[in-house]
From TrEMBL, chain A:
One function term, GO molecular function aspect: FAD binding
Record's signal peptide: none
Keywords of the record: FAD, Flavoprotein, Oxidoreductase
Organism: Marinactinospora thermotolerans DSM 45154
PROSITE patterns per the UniProt record, alphabetical: FAD_PCMH (PS51387)
InterPro entries: CO_DH_flav_C (IPR005107), CO_DH_flav_C_dom_sf (IPR036683), Diverse_Substr_Oxidored (IPR051312), FAD-bd_PCMH (IPR016166), FAD-bd_PCMH-like_sf (IPR036318), FAD-bd_PCMH_sub1 (IPR016167), FAD-bd_PCMH_sub2 (IPR016169), Mopterin_DH_FAD-bd (IPR002346)
Residues annotated as domain FAD-binding PCMH-type: 1-169
Protein name as catalogued: CO or xanthine dehydrogenase, FAD-binding subunit
Record PANTHER family: XANTHINE DEHYDROGENASE SUBUNIT C-RELATED
TrEMBL record, chain B:
Domain of life from the UniProt record: Bacteria
PROSITE patterns assigned to the protein according to its UniProt record, in alphabetical order: 2FE2S_FER_1, 2FE2S_FER_2
Keywords: Iron, Metal-binding, Molybdenum, Oxidoreductase
InterPro entries (alphabetical): 2Fe-2S-bd, 2Fe-2S-bd_dom_sf, 2Fe-2S_ferredoxin-like_sf, 2Fe-2S_ferredoxin-type, 2Fe2S_fd_BS, Ald_Oxase/Xan_DH_a/b, Ald_Oxase/Xan_DH_a/b_sf, Ald_Oxase/xanthine_DH-like
Low complexity bias spans: 635-653
Chain spans, region Disordered: 273-316, 634-653
The name this protein goes by in its record: Xanthine dehydrogenase YagR molybdenum-binding subunit
Species of origin: Marinactinospora thermotolerans DSM 45154
Family the UniProt entry places it in: Belongs to the xanthine dehydrogenase family.
Pfam families per UniProt: Fer2, Fer2_2, MoCoBD_1, MoCoBD_2
Gene3D superfamilies attached to this UniProt entry: 3.10.20.30, [2Fe-2S]-binding domain (1.10.150.120), Aldehyde oxidase/xanthine dehydrogenase, a/b hammerhead (3.90.1170.50), Aldehyde oxidase/xanthine dehydrogenase, molybdopterin binding domain (3.30.365.10)
């Protein structure tokens, strides 16, 4: 197995172009597990840790541009206000050791449906920036996930960054795990409201072959939500939203949970997310008033 | 590539893609950093990279270039949190300890810098330590240690008392485990395992790689993961590559992977002939119970008292619809031992033909005897070493395939051979507690006394037989008529092994919930009912304590509504008292100190400390004048760390030896003053007999069943989220009646760990199989879920120390009795909170929600 260690972004893109089957590695939290147990033996690893700009973050034309290698710990500590849902998800990732090294880029690269970063990216309508020697393109996260561990990324492309829109309303992320201590998600859910556009975004994790949106639920809540006064939605509305989220999932039974339980947990998380959103929205109105 | 490790510049040409833990351990000899899960889940490999904790099993070596790495060795024993871990006994086997210590050191420093010297509380510690698993369950001590270090209580290097004599070795990473034995000239071995649930093996072509056949005599494989052969090469990755090249001719046979399927008529047979059945492995540790075979079912082995009366009373009660008849079918899942130190052996034959085995074992003397028999050696020519053992829980009690393969390969190759299981092997074929299906019937008479009891238990131990469960119902609740029948259902799945209170845990899951149900039917306090039914006076003392607990007194009565509900449950436990009657301790005066030797091992229970404490107390010596050497078969009669018998066997032997030494040296003015002048003085003490002898007239393999039963009562408090089906154990009280406690803090640590394992059994642990292939799906520590620190309730342990005056030394073992009733107490608490009686373990959220559905 080759170990490619480019020291500049241009070298990295050239290496990926020359070795499209090379597996990029940053924190190692996904890739090394497969190596340790001999599940995968890629012909080459492409080490991206020496490329400083992958750890950059800052404003970019109305977005927060987050380098693909920014560790979760940095998101939690420095970018909480600019990416509330993602920061909550980052806090839910595994353990301090893993958060110190794992990154959103790694989650996107591995594209495991259980990755904690996916639901917030879907909910806030983030963009994924893909780069190759051919150029740079940005793909909506909502168009990024194609199938089990398959994405819009082409073989010669590297994930350079994600772009998060300025928060324009309440955001949340919640996750049901398998025990009280550090856990992998049985199911996770993210909700983001956009008060200007009056739209609702959702993201579902660990409950389908890919991260999913609950589009019906989004439309439903957007039409039922009291965007002016944030009056509490009726119990029937909240219940219906939960049902729509649950029905958007495509879960299976596996060692982490049953399909039925996953749907149930999603409906509970979705209902709870609405009540948090209403509370946050009211606070925001009160603050602006 | 250059880096800095513990302040020292290092240059290396290691593989850039190999995990950093390999460089640290194999390359630099820094074996304090452990490799346990390979998944980034358990945290045993945690090191600091430029001051930030990281999992070195997931860190490519290349990423260390130019970095500064701190391992546990780099903390140098000088960090306050290391002193805190030692002072609060925040460890048992110690295998996870370096990882915890490194993470805790970073956390404590940061906490104090940000908040000052204040206690962070449990929640903050739980969050910080979320990436670490301790299979022994020493979390209570870890909480206490980290909190105290944050509060600045351990800044003074003048050492606080350490309850565990080897604590310093464990918190500094100096304690050497079998996996840490890395001879420079050695081969690494790996096992090639069956990909088939059932197959006959034809030709094997391993090429010219050194290999040893591990097939059973009939060359038939009966589960996925069964060893076929082992190969050896210079490095582990070369051995893996060689293993992948081995060609094996398999003829697959039909297989059964589910007990229900195995019981059905006409299903494929796991064992087709009498000879095959006779060769079936045993999951039990006793002599084995008899049983007839019918298809894949073996049994019953029946026990009881006035069985016909019991059956008649039960069937009549059923006919008349008696409300005082409680019947239910309970099930338990397969629970895997998964000690953090995997099964491991380093084998070497010396020039005289002696066999040297470093092996991670609970039984140095048994392994030595079995090895001597296997290789036809006189006992004194087999040298077994297990200086520190990273947990066992019953899975490391015999000469195992790791030792057999390593020794055979070492003989072929003429160099030391090391064989270490990876976590997938450890979770697949290294020991598990068989699952069970238990039919219980319990009848009370008009006065509320126990009138009849019937238990039919079917053990699900894969290819293994001998899973007695119902048998243990002979030992409880007086002499009422009872019929107790045990069956084994064999399947093409990995074999079981003894696991902490084998049979007791699944029986009590059923029986103690049945008793609870009866209390509800009789409208009687569950503790009061047990007190009436249970004649054991030692447990009466525990019932009285339990009944007076505020959490019991304040428990909710009547139905609750609302999302979050609380419940309190109780369970009692009874367990035989075993001992090694011949256990010996030798004392020798050397350089002004007393050196104590015993042919035992320490799997985390604190055997060294028991000997040290007894000898120091008897001779009036300070702790540093006694040194304990164990972990070798040194010619003395030992005791295996199984059956809760080490302490009760070795404690009195240490006492006897100390008395003999005192007599030899003479009393005046004190022993301490005479040590200098008594160099070389040597005595051997033995485990004197109990008053009234033992239940077993003759010791079997040195082991006897003593008189009396160890007892426990657990009271659990739970919080149930009825919307998500999640259960949290918030508080646990354990009353233990095991007589004299030799070392209070260590005994308490055992009981706390027993509760943690019981919580795992109750709520999380379940081995999953792919029924189509027989493959174990839960072969990593992400998906096989053992409890973490945040799953720890607040624990109180009470020791009732009377009632064992007939026992030499006054105390018996407690490691098992403290564990077996935990799940039932949680089940009863869940029933109390929700009205739903959980019948199936683990009590998963989906099961709870399903059960609570109106």
């Amino acid at each position: 197995m080759d170990f490619l260690s480019p020291s500049t972004w241009e070298e990295a893109l050239a290496a990926k172009s020359a070795h499209p089957d090379a597996v990029p590695i940053m924190g190692g939290t996904d890739v090394m597990v497969e190596l340790n147990f001999g599940r995968r033996r890629p012909p080459a690893l492409l080490d991206l840790t020496r490329i400083p700009q992958l750890r950059d973050h800052g404003p970019d034309d109305g977005y927060l541009r987050l380098g693909a290698g920014v560790p979760y710990t940095t998101i939690i500590e420095r970018l909480r206000d600019r990416s509330p849902a993602l920061a909550q998800a980052a806090r839910a990732v595994a353990s301090p050791q893993i958060r110190n090294r794992g990154s959103v880029g790694g989650n996107l690269g591995g594209a495991s449906p259980a990755g904690d970063a996916h639901p917030p990216l879907l909910a806030v309508d983030a963009l994924v920036e893909l780069a190759s020697v051919r150029g740079v393109r940005r793909v909506a996260a909502r168009e990024f996930y194609h199938g089990p561990r398959r994405t819009a990324r082409r073989d010669d492309e590297l994930i350079s960054a994600v772009l998060l829109p300025e928060p324009a309303g309440p955001q949340s992320f919640s996750k049901i795990g398998t025990r009280n201590a550090m856990v992998i998600a049985v199911a996770s859910f993210s909700l983001a409201l956009d008060a200007q556009a009056r739209t609702v975004g959702t993201g579902i994790g660990s409950a389908g072959p890919t991260p999913l949106r609950a589009i019906e639920a989004e439309k439903f809540l957007a039409s039922e939500f009291d965007w002016d006064g944030a009056a509490s939605p009726s119990p029937a509305t909240v219940t219906r939203f939960g049902e729509l989220v649950a029905s958007a999932a495509r879960p299976i039974d596996d060692v982490r949970g049953s399909a039925h339980y996953r749907r149930h947990a999603l409906s509970v998380m979705a209902r709870r997310a609405v009540s948090w959103a209403v509370t946050d929205y009211r606070k925001e109105i009160a603050r602006c008033a | 590539m250059d880096l800095n490790v513990n302040g020292v510049p290092v240059s290396t040409d290691s593989d850039p893609d190999a995990p950093a833990v390999e460089l640290l351990r194999d390359g630099l000899g820094l074996t304090g950093t452990k490799l346990a899960c390979g998944n980034g889940v358990c945290g045993a490999c945690t090191v600091l990279i430029d001051g930030a904790p990281g999992a070195s099993c997931l860190l490519p070596t290349a990423h260390l270039e130019g970095r500064s790495v701190t391992t546990v060795e780099g903390l140098d024993g000088a960090h306050p949190v290391q002193r805190a871990f030692a002072a609060h006994d925040a460890m048992q086997c110690g295998y996870c300890t370096p990882g915890f210590v490194v993470e805790a050191a970073a956390f404590v420093d940061r906490w104090r810098a940000e908040h000052g010297d204040v206690d962070p509380g449990r929640a903050a510690v739980a969050t910080a330590m979320a990436g670490h698993l301790c299979r022994c369950g020493a979390y209570e001590g870890i909480y206490a240690a980290v909190r105290a270090a944050c509060a600045g209580e351990h800044d003074d290097p003048a050492s606080a008392p350490r309850p565990r004599v080897e604590a310093f070795e464990k918190v500094t990473g100096r304690a050497r485990y079998t996996t840490d034995i890395l001879p420079a000239k050695r081969l690494e071995a790996v096992i090639v395992r069956s990909p088939h649930a059932h197959a006959r093996v034809g030709a094997i072509d391993a090429g010219d790689v050194p290999h040893v056949d591990l097939l059973p005599d009939d060359r038939t494989l009966r589960y996925v993961g069964q060893p076929v052969l082992a190969v050896a090469a210079a490095t582990r990755s070369q051995a893996l590559a060689a293993a992948a090249r081995v060609r094996i001719d398999y003829s697959p046979l039909p297989a059964v992977t589910r007990p229900e399927q195995a019981r059905a008529a006409g299903s494929p047979l796991v064992y087709a002939s009498r000879d095959e059945r006779r060769a079936a492995p045993r999951s039990g540790e006793g002599p084995g119970l008899p049983g007839r075979w019918q298809g894949n079912v073996r049994g019953p082995s029946g026990f009881g008292r006035r069985q016909a009366t019991a059956v008649r009373r039960l069937s009549r009660a059923a006919e008349r619809g008696d409300d005082r008849l409680v019947t239910a079918v309970f099930t338990t899942s397969v629970q895997v031992h998964t000690p953090l130190e995997p099964h491991a052996c380093v084998a070497r034959w010396d020039e005289r033909g002696d066999l040297h085995l470093h092996v991670s074992t609970q039984a140095v003397t048994d392994v030595a005897e079995q090895a001597a028999r296997r290789w036809g050696l006189p006992p004194e020519r087999v040298h077994v070493v297990a200086e520190h053992v990273g947990g066992g829980f019953g899975a490391k009690g015999r000469l195992g395939v790791e030792a057999i393969a390593a020794a055979e390969l070492a003989r072929i190759c003429g160099v030391p051979v090391r064989l270490v299981f990876d976590r997938s092997e450890e979770l697949t074929d290294a020991g598990s507690r068989p699952g069970t299906r238990t039919e219980l019937a319990l009848l009370a008479d008009a006065s509320g006394d126990l009138a009849a009891l019937a238990v039919d238990a079917h053990g699900d131990g894969g290819v293994s037989v001998d899973t007695p469960t119902a048998l243990f119902a002979n030992l409880v609740y007086g002499t009422a008529p009872r019929r107790l029948r045990d069956f084994d259902v064999v399947t093409n799945l990995p074999p079981g092994a003894p696991f902490r209170g084998p049979g007791g845990a699944p029986l009590l899951w059923a029986l103690e919930q049945g008793v609870d149900e009866m209390a509800l039917r009789l409208k009687e306090d569950p503790i009061a009912l047990r007190r009436r039914w249970d004649g054991n006076p030692k447990r009466h003392a525990l019932y009285d304590r339990a009944a007076a607990l505020p959490m019991w007194q304040r428990r909710n009565r009547g139905a609750q509504s609302g999302r979050i509900r609380h419940g309190v449950g109780v369970a009692a436990a009874n367990w035989p008292y075993l001992l090694n009657t011949g256990a010996q301790v030798e004392l020798e005066v050397r350089e002004g100190r007393v050196v104590a030797r015993a042919a035992i091992q320490d799997i985390g229970t604190g055997s060294r400390s028991v000997i040290a404490d007894v000898v120091a107390a008897e001779l009036g010596l300070p702790a540093d004048r006694v040194r304990v050497e164990i972990g070798h078969n040194n010619g003395l009669k030992g005791a295996s760390s199984t059956g809760s018998k080490t302490t009760t066997s070795i404690g009195p032997a240490a006492q006897d030896a100390a008395r003999r030494l005192r007599r030899l040296l003479g009393d005046a003015p004190s022993v301490a003053h005479r040590l200098e002048a008594s160099e070389g003085a040597r005595v051997v003490g033995g485990r004197g007999r109990d008053r009234h002898g033992y239940l077993t007239p003759v010791p079997l393999g040195g082991m006897a069943v003593g008189r009396g039963f160890a007892g426990a009562v657990h009271v659990a408090e739970v919080e149930v989220d009825t919307r998500l089906g999640r259960i949290r154990v918030t508080r646990m009280w354990a009353g233990i009646a095991a007589g004299r406690i030799y070392s209070e803090r260590l005994a308490r640590n055992q009981c706390e760990g027993a509760i943690i394992q019981g919580i795992g059994y109750a709520l999380y642990e379940q081995r999953h199989i792919d029924p189509a292939t027989g493959v174990v799906l839960t072969d990593n520590l992400e998906d096989y879920r053992i409890p973490g620190i945040a799953d720890t309730p607040e624990i109180e342990v009470y020791f009732h120390q009377e009632g064992w005056e007939h026992v030499n030394g006054g105390g018996v073992g407690l490691g098992e009795v403290a564990a077996i009733g935990v799940a039932a107490s949680i089940g009863n608490a869940v029933r109390d909170a929700t009205g739903f009686r959980p019948l199936d373990l683990p009590i998963r959220p989906d099961r709870l929600l399903e059960g609570m559905r109106p």
